[in-house]
């Protein structure tokens, strides 16, 4: 099953390589990985999406917790949560395609953030399925370049991940 | 406040940490530190002949004393030479701190002379690693390193120290931190009371119970509590290779150790049990055999300080995360308070069954009037040393024979590389033990293959007068490899012979020690007696043993715990 694990990590050099190293060393999957400092400059927030049986996921969370620099973590998929990923896409946009793409972007609530005579650059945020859906809708033939941020997530409601 | 250079602060911190010995080897990036060492005499430095041996020495010291070992090496090759030793300690959860010189911080990343990214290289085989970024941090980093290495599930910690952190001409205020606090590291200090209660209820209701104890009992200094609980209950106990000595081996409740080369009765009792109380062990593949066939009728209570060890390979019905000594203490109190008692009838039937298994095999081997059997060498040593020696072993058949036929009644006396299986571990580990136990008998049981992996340490033994007794079970082959080839590759002995063995007697003498060769059966006991009488001499005893012997019992690959070879021809 796909899981989103969100980690508060000491904002120290080498901490990230320990997390990444753990995944490769123990043969765990990483589908996406995002990391950035938080409002508390001593902490980074790292989100990793992974797949595995319940047993593997349990080991992943335990092994992550064992890393000295991991302060706290939560498996967001265990409860209601919000998941977002940002995508920037360059699309071939000439002639009648331009209006068609504009319409699709509107339907997906994206924005065209840069324009040339033959290219639109589109920004889109949402869960991973929505981003996949957009690419499908515009058709891969017209896609020149895609960059995705990887998933960030947060629990719904009053639950917070903090110290 | 005192002003000290980074190097002096480092050594002062080691003093304040209570460190007695450093095992190491100097080089460019560590020279400021070596100079600071020279100008004091509290911390003693042992100069090895290869950095790997320094780590095994620190490891042997840690296993015998329960205190963290300390290693000091230079950058680059000095640091990379420690990796096998660090990985060995990591697999067996041995507390140690490895201090590595590093090129100056201004040179890092420039492929400077003897630059290696030791933080990166060591990462998968350490509990943690730290680098020094400012000389002022040194006392705190050292304090943290020892704290992390020796608390919770212990393990090796590497500290990387760029040369400019230790320059003599910059001085700083020295203060050794009284306490360490790490918001992200809080090992459990007691188990969950509800879980412990549940475990005790299950334990008392069991009809075919067995206690399965591991190295965690020794690391957690919980042998007394374990022994008390097991005796109170009257249940059978087995332990892992790493747990040897956690419960007296000569006691009748003890079934010997379990797993691949464990006793028949241990493996049978595990397989047929209805309740397994696992204390500080980790259901390693050398214990369980095929996990899907593991002990089909057993419910499992698992006590471990490391939550990640629980339900990793075998699911626990009652997991208890906590230090084994504290948890066992609570269990003892609960058993005492409880009105429930083990079902006497069920227990006596269980013991009757176990005694039948014990009588069926026990530990036996086929003796031979002509050749010296490796097993009889160990039995003889056990008798001659009153079962009270420290035995550091290398890796191979000799290791299994030593573990099977030397009956350890005390913890911390069986010193071996269980998890990584590192040939070359034995001699330096024995040296680490001998250094702090000069009056105890310290044996290194080895093979002609293993001993040659760190033979250069005979020179260190001379320098520091470390009269260990090296018992070389010379079968003129990489015996364990050969056994597997006999069993699985139709005796095609690919690269498992050691041709052109050195004359170990002359070799020992060249290093300034005594060499004794034993190749006749009738000489075995008298010569071993003579060897043991040479209290202040390192003696290299080269014993020509049966070249064709195999280690049994041996679990059948991919079988359950009860599927074993008991000899070359008997399979159950
Ligand atoms: C460093 C290392 N290399 C290879 C092995 C694989 N190995 C395990 S046992 C063994 C043979 C050991 O030979 P010896 O020391 O003579 O012991 P014996 O089995 O003959 O008693 C080998 C090569 C190992 N455990 N460690
Ligand atoms: Mg051999």
TrEMBL record, chain A:
Family label: Belongs to the acetolactate synthase small subunit family.
Residues annotated as domain ACT: 4-78
Key words, A-Z: Amino-acid biosynthesis, Branched-chain amino acid biosynthesis, Transferase
Pfam families xrefs: ACT_AHAS_ss, ALS_ss_C
Alphabetical list of InterPro entries matching this protein: Acetalactate_synth_ssu, Acetolactate_synth/TF_NikR_C, Acetolactate_synth_ssu_C, ACT-like_dom_sf, ACT_dom, AHAS_ACT, AHAS_small-like_ACT
One GO CC term on file: cytosol
GO terms (BP aspect): isoleucine biosynthetic process; L-valine biosynthetic process
Catalytic activity reported: 2 pyruvate + H(+) = (2S)-2-acetolactate + CO2
Listed NCBIfam families: acolac_sm, PRK11895.1
Designated name of the protein: Acetolactate synthase small subunit
Source species of the chain: Marinobacter profundi
PANTHER family: ACETOLACTATE SYNTHASE SMALL SUBUNIT (PTHR30239), ACETOLACTATE SYNTHASE SMALL SUBUNIT 1, CHLOROPLASTIC (PTHR30239:SF0)
TrEMBL record, chain B:
UniProt EC number: 2.2.1.6
Domain spans labelled Thiamine pyrophosphate enzyme central: 196-330
One Pfam family linked to the record: TPP_enzyme_M
Pathway(s) of this molecule: Amino-acid biosynthesis; L-valine biosynthesis; L-valine from pyruvate: step 1/4; Amino-acid biosynthesis; L-isoleucine biosynthesis; L-isoleucine from 2-oxobutanoate: step 1/4
Domain Thiamine pyrophosphate enzyme TPP-binding: 394-543
NCBIfam families, alphabetized: acolac_lg (TIGR00118), PRK06466.1 (NF005058)
Entry similarity comment: Belongs to the TPP enzyme family.
The name this protein goes by in its record: Acetolactate synthase
Species name: Marinobacter profundi
């Amino acid at each position: 099953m796909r899981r989103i694990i969100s980690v508060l990590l000491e904002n120290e050099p080498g901490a990230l390589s320990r997390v990444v190293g753990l995944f490769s060393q123990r043969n765990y999957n990483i589908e996406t990985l995002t990391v950035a400092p938080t409002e508390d400059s001593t902490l980074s927030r790292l989100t990793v999406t992974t797949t595995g049986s319940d047993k593997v996921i349990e080991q992943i969370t335990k092994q992550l917790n064992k890393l000295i620099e991991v302060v706290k973590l939560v498996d967001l998929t265990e409860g209601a949560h919000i998941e977002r990923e940002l995508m920037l896409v360059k699309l071939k946009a000439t002639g009648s395609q331009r209006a068609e793409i504009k319409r699709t972007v509107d339907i997906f609530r994206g924005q065209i953030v840069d324009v040339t005579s033959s290219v639109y650059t589109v920004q889109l945020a949402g869960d991973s399925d929505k981003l996949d859906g957009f690419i499908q809708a515009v058709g891969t033939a017209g896609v020149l370049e895609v960059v995705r941020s990887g998933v960030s997530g947060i629990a719904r409601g009053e639950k917070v991940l903090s110290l | 406040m005192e002003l000290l250079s980074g190097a002096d602060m480092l050594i002062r911190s080691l003093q304040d940490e209570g460190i007695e010995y450093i095992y190491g080897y100097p080089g460019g990036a560590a020279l400021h530190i070596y100079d600071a060492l020279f100008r004091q005499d509290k911390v003693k430095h042992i100069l090895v002949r290869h950095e790997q041996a320094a780590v095994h020495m620190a490891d042997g010291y840690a296993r015998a004393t329960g205190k963290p070992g300390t290693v000091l090496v230079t950058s680059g090759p000095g640091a990379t030479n420690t990796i096998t030793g660090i990985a060995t300690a990591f697999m067996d959860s041995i507390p140690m701190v490895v201090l590595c010189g590093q090129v100056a911080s201004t040179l890092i990343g420039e492929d400077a002379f003897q630059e290696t990214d030791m933080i990166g290289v060591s990462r998968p085989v350490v509990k943690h690693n730290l680098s020094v970024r400012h000389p002022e941090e040194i006392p705190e980093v050292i304090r943290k390193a020892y704290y992390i290495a020796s608390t919770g599930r212990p393990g090796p910690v590497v500290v990387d120290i760029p040369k400019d952190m230790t320059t003599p001409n910059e001085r700083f205020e020295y203060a050794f931190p009284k306490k360490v606090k790490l918001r992200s590291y809080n090992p459990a200090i007691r188990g969950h009371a509800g879980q412990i209660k549940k475990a005790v209820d299950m334990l008392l209701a069991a009809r075919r119970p067995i206690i399965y104890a591991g190295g965690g009992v020794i690391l957690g200094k919980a042998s007394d509590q374990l022994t008390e609980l097991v005796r109170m209950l009257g249940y059978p106990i087995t332990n892992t290779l790493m747990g040897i000595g956690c419960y007296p081996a000569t006691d009748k409740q003890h079934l010997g150790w379990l797993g691949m080369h464990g006793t028949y009765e241990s493996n049978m009792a595990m397989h047929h049990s209805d309740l397994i109380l696992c204390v500080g062990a980790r259901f390693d593949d050398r214990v369980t055999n095929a996990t899907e066939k593991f002990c089909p009728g057993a419910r499992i209570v698992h006590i471990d300080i490391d939550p990640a060890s629980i339900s990793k390979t075998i699911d626990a019905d009652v997991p208890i995360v906590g230090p084994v000594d504290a948890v066992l203490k609570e269990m003892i109190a609960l058993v005492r308070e409880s009105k429930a008692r083990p079902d006497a009838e069920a227990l006596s039937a269980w013991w009757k069954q176990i005694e039948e298994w014990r009588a069926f095999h026990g530990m036996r081997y086929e003796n031979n009037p002509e050749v010296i059997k490796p097993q009889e060498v160990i039995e003889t040593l056990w008798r001659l040393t009153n079962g009270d020696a420290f035995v550091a072993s290398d890796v191979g058949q000799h290791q299994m024979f030593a573990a099977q036929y030397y009956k350890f009644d005390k913890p911390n006396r069986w010193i071996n590389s269980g998890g990584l299986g590192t040939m070359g571990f034995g001699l330096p580990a024995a040296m680490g033990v001998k250094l702090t136990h000069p009056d105890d008998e310290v044996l290194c049981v080895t093979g002609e293959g293993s001993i040659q992996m760190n033979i250069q340490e005979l020179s260190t033994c001379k320098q520091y007068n470390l009269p260990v007794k090296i018992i070389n079970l010379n079968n003129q082959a990489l015996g364990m490899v050969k056994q597997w080839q006999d069993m699985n590759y139709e005796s095609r002995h690919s690269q498992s012979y050691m041709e052109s063995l050195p004359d170990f007697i002359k070799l020992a003498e060249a290093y300034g020690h005594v060499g004794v060769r034993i190749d006749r059966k009738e000489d075995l006991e008298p010569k071993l007696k003579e060897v043991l009488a040479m209290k202040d001499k390192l003696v290299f005893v080269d014993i020509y043993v049966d070249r064709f012997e195999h280690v049994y019992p041996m679990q059948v690959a991919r079988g359950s715990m009860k599927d074993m070879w008991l000899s070359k021809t008997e399979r159950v």
